[in-house]
Amino acid sequence: MSTVSVGLAFGMALAPSTPVLAAATSAHAIGPEGDPEELSAQAVERFQAKDYDGAVSLFQQAYAIDPQPNYLFNIGRVYEEKGDLENAVVYYQKFVGQSGVDLESRQAATERLKVLREALAQLESNKEPEPKDVGPEQPKDDTVEPVPDEQDQPPVVDEEAQQAAKRKKTLRITGYALMGVGGAALVVGGVLGGLASSNVADANADEFVDRTLAFRDKARRQAAGADAMFITGGVLAVTGVALVLATLGGKKSKKAGGDVARRTAWSPVVGPERVGVGLTHRF
User: Fold this and answer.
1) Please, what sign has the CA dihedral across residues 266, 270, 273, 274?
2) Nearest to 15 by CA among 44, 56, 37, 39
3) Is 278 helix (H, G, I), strand (E, B) or coil?
4) CA-CA distance, 19 to 160, in Å (whole number)?
5) Residue 127: what pLDDT?
6) Is 40:24 a contact under the CB 8 Å cutoff?
7) How are the residues of the chain apportioned to helix, strand and coil, as percentages rounded to the nearest 5?
8) How far apart are CA 208 and CA 266, in angstroms?
9) For residues 275 and 255, what is the distance between their CA atoms, to the nearest angstrom?
10) In this predicted model, what pLDDT tens digit does every residue of 37-48 receive, in sequence order?
11) Which residues contact 232 (CB under 8 A, 6 or more apart)?
């Protein structure tokens, strides 16, 4: 059995309550740096006193003087007892990779590596993810935007429709005015016609020729005035009626290809023998 394996076997024979530390026993020369065996003994004392950092430091000094693989194993064991599993794995791995380590010692270190790696994986999986810095929590805005009421919406102004409505209103007022003036002219014409008829009657009843001629002349003038009033009044009245009726038209109907305006137009008809209203309807 080699020197390394004997030392490791000696370390593993310690009491169960004491951590297993391999004693590195080999022939060496004591240099100015110190005695590696004395440093190793001091490291074991520091380990038993739970001064793990001091034990690691002494084992590292001993390994620097005499690079025995058992010192690496011992450093890994101290880190394992301290709870620093990552460094324990590092030094156990270094021990397994050293030459001159017998199979039994290598297998023991390999088993320690397996246990520690499983423990590290379990610890890593149990770690909670660190919360991301998302800044201060913004207060929730519970304000509910009011739904606009249709009645509160401003009405849509159609300027073209307003202009059309104004024109219709103006035409309607003008039509009523013309109807009024035309009606008055018709009344005057009726009065003049009545006076002309009266003068004709007086002319027929009068016995004097000069008086008869005077009555008939007066009746002709009155009849002419009555005719003028009838014509003028009729034209004005009919025009007024046409304007009023025009403001009541303008309905639209839909046909293939778009909207087509259906309009009804009224126009006065005046002639030598008639006065009336003409109706024009466009489809």
Assistant:
1) positive
2) 44
3) strand
4) 103
5) 74
6) yes
7) 60, 10, 30
8) 52
9) 37
10) 999 999 999 999
11) 182, 185, 189
Collapsed DSSP state (helix, strand, coil) of residue 42: helix
Cα-based distances in Å from 54 to 49, 50, 246, 278: 10, 9, 116, 127
- Reduced 3-state DSSP string for 240-268: HHHHHHHCCCCCEEEECCEEEECEEEEEE
Token digits of residue 21: 């530390």
Q: Tell me which residue has tokens 């520690």.
A: 116
Name the pLDDT band for 171 (thresholds 50, 70, 90): confident
Residue located via tokens 């018709």 = 186
CB 240 within 8 A of CB 177: yes
Mention every residue, 6+ apart, whose C-beta is less than 8 A from residue 194: none
Is the predicted pLDDT of residue 142 greater than 70, yes or no? no
Q: Could you tell me if residue 250 is left (phi over 0), alpha (psi between -120 and 50 degrees) or otherwise beta? A: left
Q: Compute the residue count for the chain.
A: 283
pLDDT digits (tens, 9 = 90+) for 220-260: 999 999 899 989 888 888 888 888 888 876 554 444 444 44
Please tell me whether residue 174 adopts helix, strand or coil conformation.
Answer: helix
Report the helix count and the strand count for the chain, using DSSP H and E: 8, 4
- Full DSSP string of 2-35: -HHHHHHHHHHTS-TTSPP----------BTTB-
Report whether 106 contacts 142 (CB < 8 A): no
Angle at 63 between CA 62 and CA 69, to 5 degrees: 130
Tokens of 155: 């009405």
Contact 53, 41 (CB under 8 A): no
